[in-house]
Write a structure and sequence with these properties.
The chain is mainly α. The protein contains 5 helices and 2 strands.
Length: 198
């Protein structure tokens, strides 16, 4: 179950990253409408793929929505801990490029000319961080615990799913989630390629 979730999240990551440019020019209302449209597509896709009856869907979707909300909250906790770790890890010497810790997604020495990560200087922890943040070891613990928390949530809801669906339907659900994420990603890439050709 966790492996399929990881695959889903990893397959959505490029979709999210590339969408950031376009999203910067959209209103909150437009973003909400897009999320709702994708959510409706997901519900329809999974309902069909897993073979839910109207009765199955009525029992299942409230549980699934609860799980998604709780997983989002855990993801926010994880993001906050990670952001605080980035803030605490300060470059040793800010005038020298490639030293220190950069925010997620920033390359350290990787260029078209080749991979120069081996030349990057090690990360040095600022011994006097600004403000009164938690020490790095506490933040690391918080960060890792979010994965355990998510696993417990998924296990708990998996057992609940089995009370309202058959084992085959639950298995089809997990496969359908992954297939839907892959479909979203492929559709996005196709749209980008069409725009590039114009």
């Amino acid at each position: 179950m966790n492996r399929s979730l990881l695959v889903i999240l990893l397959s959505l990551l490029p979709f999210w990253a590339m969408a950031q440019d376009a999203r910067a020019h959209k209103t909150d209302q437009e973003r909400r409408a897009e999320r709702e449209a994708i959510r409706a597509q997901k519900v329809a896709f999974i309902t069909q793929e897993a073979g839910f009856s109207a009765e199955d869907a009525e029992k299942f979707w409230p549980l699934y929505n609860e799980l998604e909300q709780k997983v989002r909250e855990v993801g926010h906790e994880r993001g906050k801990a990670k952001a605080e770790m980035y803030r605490l890890l300060q470059p040793f010497h800010t005038n020298y490029p490639g030293k220190g810790t950069e925010p997620a997604g920033v390359s350290q020495g990787r260029t078209k000319a080749g991979d120069h990560r081996a030349q990057a200087q090690p990360v040095i922890l600022d011994e006097h961080p600004k403000g009164s943040p938690a020490p790095v070891d506490k933040l690391l613990e918080e960060y890792i615990l979010t994965f355990e928390k998510e696993t417990r949530l998924r296990s708990e809801y998996h057992r609940m799913f089995l009370k309202v669906l058959t084992a085959e339907q639950v298995a089809r659900l997990y496969i359908a989630e992954e297939r839907f994420s892959n479909k979203l990603f492929r559709d996005y890439i196709d749209r980008k390629l069409e725009q590039k050709e114009k």
